[in-house]
User: What shape does this take?
Amino acid sequence: MTEEYHRVVIVGAGFAGVTAANELAAKGIDVLLIDRNNYHQFQPLIYQVATTQIAVTDVARPLRAMFRRTPSVCVKTAEITSIDPGERAVTTADGITYRGGFLILAAGSEANFFGIPGAAEHAFPLYSVDDAAKLRSRFLGALDAADRDEAYIDKGALNVVVVGAGPTGVETAGAVAESMRSAVPAYLSPALAASGRVYLADMLPSVLTPFSERSQRYAEAKLREAGVELRLDLGVTEVRKDGVTLSDGTEILSRTVVWAGGLKGSSLLSDTGLPLGKGGRVEVAPDLTVPGFEGVYALGDSANIPDSAGSPLPQLGSVA
Ligand SMILES: Cc1cc2nc3c(=O)[nH]c(=O)nc-3n(C[C@H](O)[C@H](O)[C@H](O)COP(=O)(O)OP(=O)(O)OC[C@H]3O[C@@H](n4cnc5c(N)ncnc54)[C@H](O)[C@@H]3O)c2cc1C
Assistant: This one.
């Protein structure tokens, strides 16, 4: 088995991992930065890649180019498959173990499907460039199908259902509605293009629940103006290849179901013995150390970072 040692090993090159690498490099510390992708992704604009508004290159920056002038940061592209926090070591899918004097876990979030039947199989989450490319391809593929054979329209080819009316769902539903207006007429006659529907569903009674009531009303009005149909106070009980079922029994036909229904900490963190709390994230002290695991830190979306009152900070780029 191959093993390599670095002063600091960082898992994940999102906002948290890249910032940590830069800060440590500025002090001349040897850092190994590992990510499954050879690029850093700018998550806040990923939904615009999915809805054909911007290119992948607008949200993905090559990691080696970012650290070209920083020799103390070594970048590796690898899928980490296990973490041994006691040994401050991680192992890749191809069996290489990287051990650190310190281990920083910054592997971000992943979609939480809450066990809803069919969601993991048929819905499209939106947390990576890869996710965005798959969703974009499905969206355009459905338009191509409708262009070849109008019968697909009756099967929901032009309908998009966004599940979850938090910030990601609201942004995505708005952007899909814009794309419906701008992209669809290039494929279909105005009459057929107008038959496409964008739905935004949430089990809660309003959009953007953590925000002020004024923001909620504003967002709802803007979404309706853009043509988004709100299905609030209704959970999604099943996702199928051809659509979704809502908790009142309504069925919506759609080939494109976007999952913005919730997040959890990276599944890489489970079964590691690390203390996991809300959302499967690592419970950390205010200095980001993990109690009971010397030399191990968890940052960004992977961690429940306490604010000054002890409540966990939200999963945001600014926090990461
Ligand atoms: C669509 C969307 C819109 C958003 N909009 C905003 C916004 O407007 N404002 C805001 O403040 N925040 C926003 N956020 C939240 C913000 O993007 C996240 O909080 C932030 O990216 C978290 O940073 P991170 O470094 O903790 O994790 P991430 O950015 O998720 O980085 C984690 C990295 O770990 C890598 N990784 C994971 N598992 C493995 C593995 N097994 N092996 C190797 N590498 C792995 C991933 O490839 C990824 O590069 C948005 C998020 C999304 C999804």
